[in-house]
User: Fold these one by one.
Assistant:
Number 1:
Amino acid sequence: MRELPDVLKDWEAVIGLEVHCELTTLETKMFCGCPNTHDAEPNANVCPVCLGMPGALPVPNKAAIESIVRAGLACNCEIQKHSMFYRKHYFYPDMAKNFQTTQGPVAFCMYGHLDLDVAGEGAAERPDGTGVDKAADGSYTTPVRILRIHMEEDAAKMNHLGGEEGRITSATESLIDYNRCGTPLTELVTEPDLRTPEEARLFMEKLRRIYLTLGISDCSMEHGSMRCDGNVSLRRRGETRLGTKTELKNINSFKSLHDGLAYEICRQAEVLEEGGVIYQETRHWEPSRRRTVVMRVKETADDYRLFPDPDLAPYDLTDEFIAHCAAEIPELPDAKRDRYMADFGLKRADAEQIAGDPDCAAFFEEAVAGETTKGAATVANVIVNDLTGYLNAAGIAISETSITPAQVKSLADLLASDAISSNQGREVFGLMAESGDDPAAIVDARGMRQVSDTGALEPIVDAVLARCGEQVEQYRGGNKRVVGFLVGQCMKDSKGKGNPKLFNQLLTAKLEA
Ligand code: ADP
Ligand code: MG
Ligand code: ZN
């Protein structure tokens, strides 16, 4: 198969996403009062409504509707004042009532959009001359329309034991847990406006940052509270008609979204170039084997017998309700990123990472309260590099660590004032994470403070220059890089405590004199 960049020169990829997100921060399910938690014993959180007992009547969860309206507003949607819940029929044990309650043609949120900023290597996936204005560095911004965000209920979780390759056979034993059945779920559907796997990935990441900031979900791709289906088709460049799409189901990581779509694009190109046809089907991405396989061919919408749910009255949202939802929207990630760049001079990537996670943003803001720009940039550095690396390795969230903003600030101060080098900084971070001690105390107890006093460093520099006549000759002969070797000698003589930047300055001054 040809590689993606090559394929995209001849073919235009057309991608649309359907993103499901569980409203994990709500206390109760969508249409009943059962707890909305994942950690209970199997089948503990159930009642006649979510088990679909005849005669049990659903009552919509107002807090869920608040959450989805906030999502809609944050995604620039038009909030629909009048909508209805529908029944989508199907037969499978994960929904005991044999239909899923969902929204009909009119969803709470319609016709929104998000703008994507695409930069760096990912921007190269989109060949030039394909309708976006690229900046000198290749970066570009492109709008992605959102058709709708609707409210529905999730199904039960099934666990199939035995059988082969995920297929259910007569040897399979199936376990079912109705705790998730009836929990509040949103689905966002984009228009087919995405053109590269990287754009699809960036869209998901951006949406996740927004949902996290709104506090409507924990948005864990890993645990399935946020998941997406990727629809993709190809057409020859210049063609306007859409090709037949395939759908990659239940993608559970950003990497899988990107790699699965990239594979599927290359696969479709190969089929089409050999004169074959693409069937509209659902496929599954197998990351370990790096391929997609057919799950099922598409059922048509008629099979669902979609009709308004007679147990749920049409839903009317008042202006007051919508205004109340709007008032609860916090500063959104893009605005926060721009503020961090303007107020603290953070690099764009650092600002975006910190602003995209509300817990991380709160941590940062506590650490830099009353701080200058240089100090803030160093705090950001420690958070983005040391702290994030540490949390990832430990598999915990920033809200779960005992490391405090004050400790990070103290470490950043030591770095910003050159009291310790960046190498020492990493070491101090590790010691701090382990012991919980204050970085300044760690540095003092271990005598790690860098010597930045010229008077103390100069004799070392002189001794090194006297000893290394050969390197001094080389330097004067034009090989300026040899200064690195000389700094190394000075560091050795100072037992690692001299400030390497200062050694470099002193050496250079003396060599040039
Ligand atoms: P389905 O009925 O198969 O669910 P929809 O029309 O509801 O299809 O669209 C589902 C998703 O697929 C949307 O995100 C939409 O943008 C995208 N989509 C629709 N047609 C195409 C196509 N030809 N190529 C790529 N994506 C498409
Ligand atoms: Mg669909
Ligand atoms: Zn219930």
Number 2:
Amino acid sequence: MEKWNVPAVGIMMMAMSVIGCNSSSRGESSAEAASAQPATSALLGNFNADSAYQYVADQVAFGPRVPGTDAHRACRNYIIDKLEAFGADSVITQDATVTAYNGDQLPISNIIAGFNLNKAKRILLAAHWDSRPWADMEESMDLRNQPVLGANDGGSGVAVLLEIARNLAEKQPSVGVDLIFFDAEDYGNHDGFGTNADTWCLGAQYWADNIVPYRTDNLPVYGILLDMVGGRNARFHYEAFSQQNAETPTIKVWSEAERLGYGDTFIRSIGGAITDDHIVLTRAGIPTTDIVELNNVETSSFPPTWHTLHDDMEHIDRSTLKAVGETVLNVVYKEKPF
Ligand code: AHN
Ligand code: ZN
């Protein structure tokens, strides 16, 4: 494993424009008619939902992956070990210490895996791997300082990327693919939604200030971010910033989902606008779409377990992992070189 140990220089306070964190419902546009079953012959890759589910369970078994904890260190090593075992062409880490909004010093690691390193045209897939230190969406005040297990919020995106990594190592795509597992997405200030955007996504912000492994002239052509992609009955609407500023991957993902018969899961209307790692990536020059459950049928916002003590395996659904994993994997395998 090559490894970058990048000295800590503190996080740059990105002047991110204010984007509300709560999604707002703009009304459900109905999905396309009755969903067809995915036509097996048209499927590329072999995304195994049981494996993905197991990768969520493996992460959750460490406990909450809050930066600075033993569980966090163990999960960092788990992700690296998996990527190396699958046969990624390179696995590097970007290790640093960043300062959270409350002054906490966070030891962070962004983990980056590359596939098909000799290909000039590359695409980027990303997810955050940390879990939130406070369950501040709990009703009861005395539960709000407990850490979140993050099965969906953290675990699911990582799990889908790992199962994609297994596929990429087994069958090469025509383009290069890089996976970035960002740290410290979820250590942000929940108060005053919209005014604290720069307190979130600290790992991604650190990366944007210290970009590896690219030069400015060989960035991936686009990115796809996965966040909360394992919830039961999840619906993925367009995220507004993605739809505006990362139209190419947005259209590719939602069209491919529809083609595979997942049009009832990937809804082609805007569900809200959120601060997430894709904002940082897009600003860094990689237009990135966010596959995120931001217009839940019950909450009209994030899933009901979001930032609660119920973000656990009970609420993870293999069929959601499969819909997302197959869709992203098919987008990747269809991509043509320059
Ligand atoms: C905020 O809550 C600021 N943004 C949503 C991004 C997020 C948090 N994803 C998971 N946890
Ligand atoms: Zn979160």
Number 3:
Amino acid sequence: MSGKEKVILAYSGGLDTSVCIKWLQEKYDLDVICVAGDLGQDHDGLEQIKAKALASGAIDCLVVDMREDFANEYLTSAMAANAMYENKYPLVSALSRPLIVKHLVDAAHAYGAKYIAHGCTGKGNDQVRFESSLAMLDPNMEVIAPVRDWDLTCREDEMAWAEEHGIEVPTTKASPYSIDDNLWGRAIECGVLEDPWAEPPADIYTMTVGPEVAPDEPTYVEIGFSSGIPCSLDGKKMPYLDIIYAMNEIAGKNGYGRIDMVENRLVGVKSRECYEVPGALALIQAHKALEDLCLERSVLHFKLGIEQAWAEQVYNGLWFSPLKEALDAFLADTQQCVTGTVRLKFYKGSCTVVGRKSAYSLYDFGLATYDASDEFDHDLANGFIQLHSLPCKVWAKNRQAMGAKMAQFSKVASTADEFTGQGSAVVAEAEDVTQTAANAVLN
Ligand code: ARG
């Protein structure tokens, strides 16, 4: 060991973070230790990533398979929350950041590092997520964000700098897109997608086929849930992680799971984003269908607001916040009886819930049916409706009684605008109108 201070770098194996290694050595005179995580993203192999980190000058590189933890700790909560930012985006990248930071902090403590570094730009949400998570896990740790701070403004500068410093640069033309992917899906931005009017080119997608080339026959799948977590596929017990992989495959093959949206970043920018989230969307849809069956109405309705708050917390990088923890406690409570089976039908880009069943089902055939076995007390409906609508009925009567007077009142008001000098007379008339309204209610 050199006796230099140490920095832990979140390393992906790409050009940016490889340049970061050299940059941290040159500009800050630090020993760099990389952490590379497998979250189910498309990669060339963890050992290859490690070799590249060492070749780029890192003194060590930890490779961690984070997939089980990601599924069992992060995607379980996401499932309970039916997590969708702005009701559309299942939080692919946002969910992965806190887990990565957890490993960075563990590494920093193990190596006695004083700094943590990430390769996020200064314009996105990910920098906020890295640094906010870090602030909550180790408030004393210092952050370095080389990409945000460096003066390598364009890709050409960066490649030239990399070559000068002996870092292997990709020989193939770099993709015009910025991509982040994991088990839960893929996020694609930049390039032609920056024009919100331009249709996404077919080549941005790798997890889903176009609906027009999907099979002409539907595919049916049965997802079993235990306390809100997927636990079986077509009757076969499987770990959640494996179910996610399988659902990505099945849904993707049927052309389901693409999202094209303009989203509001925390840093204030609207950005056009495309996502492929075949498994995530299908599983969330199935989970919601089971909740419809098993959750009592007011719990279900209240939960919708909690879900949105949860998604915002996570999107905004507050995974470890006390509010998010409290929301988790509520959500966990609601999931106890979300056990049962949902049947999905995939067909040419669509995914439809076509069946649901549960031992905890609150669906009561006797109450719901219109046939002869109906048990619903129709007489109760009459009194219920009268009381239910009473406050609004009182309001409507008042408005009816006031109809003529109100028309007159608006004439008075416009007169007041024209002749402000006569204000007091106008106020007197308005009070008269109020009195009439009060009488109408009393009568
Ligand atoms: N907009 C998404 C989010 O903030 C995805 C970001 C993905 N990052 C990327 N480099 N493409 O969660």
Number 4:
Amino acid sequence: MKKANILLIYTGGTIGMKQDPETLALAPFNFEEILAEVPEIKKIVHTIDTYSFSPPIDSSDVEPTFWKELAKLIKKKYHLYDGFVILHGTDTMSYSASALSFMLENLEKPIIFTGSQLPIGMLRTDGKENLISSIEIAAARDSVTGRAIVPEVCIYFESQLYRGNRTTKSSAENFKAFHSPNYPCLAQAGIHIKYNTPYINYPSKWGKELIIKTAIDTNVAIIKLFPGISDATIKSTFDISGLKAVILETYGSGNAPTKPWFLDLISNATSKGIIILNITQCQAGTVDMEAYSTGIMLKKIGVVSGFDSTTEAAILKLFFLMGHSSSNQSIKELLMNNLRGEISIN
Ligand code: ASP
């Protein structure tokens, strides 16, 4: 089988930064220099073309327009490449990977996000291994069918390949910066890259055209519960003009206070048409609104379960669904469906 053609997209982030010798601050450097740091890449693929966002951004500056631009670029180049690697800052990588997972429909090729904790030019960098393995994964195809081994939007970081919309950045210090708390890794890189194929999503029917859906509605807020949270805090959030949905970060398996003032505020909001999505503050596990009376009460007043979604995927799912529908009922129904492997229900 012919070696793969890969498009390497550079958006910014630590991986492509250089330390200013005087101020010691990190600033982006020329993308071509990144490839010069890892000449080995050329051996594993047939062609590797590059595309650089101009100017490269720190991922803290990512906005929905950036996701749209990325989705449109992939659509435009889709027929030319076997896989795509996106170099992106780690800070909001889970948000961007979640965004792309919803925006790209009928995906049959790998879209691998990666980055690093140390710039690629530094001696102890984690960037080289992340970049080389990401390219190898983006290029991996079944030797018989020629189809991609991982036709999903993923994050590759520190030897692990994750489904992008299951990840969260969990360390600002360790090379292992990401976790996928509720879903197994899709591959593990050691001496060999071992694919966890039973957990990879494959198209039910191959050969469909890639569709991009880029409409986004960001009228979402998050309320993270804590003992002592005041009614004024919650009320002022629900009073935000134009607000359409709230992610309620609850305790444990989806529990919240049972005080009447709290339940009244929630119930007033749902009856005003604000969608309330229940996501647990726990780092792993799922919302179960049948387990305790506190959860049952929330369900009765119209709160929707987010199951085991990360907050990142929940925000992007709301942005995406609200961008494509104005019917509360259909948004609520789709929230409870597994659209791109982001929640563990069928
Ligand atoms: N602030 C950087 C960014 O997210 C951090 C990184 O790349 O790891 O763009």
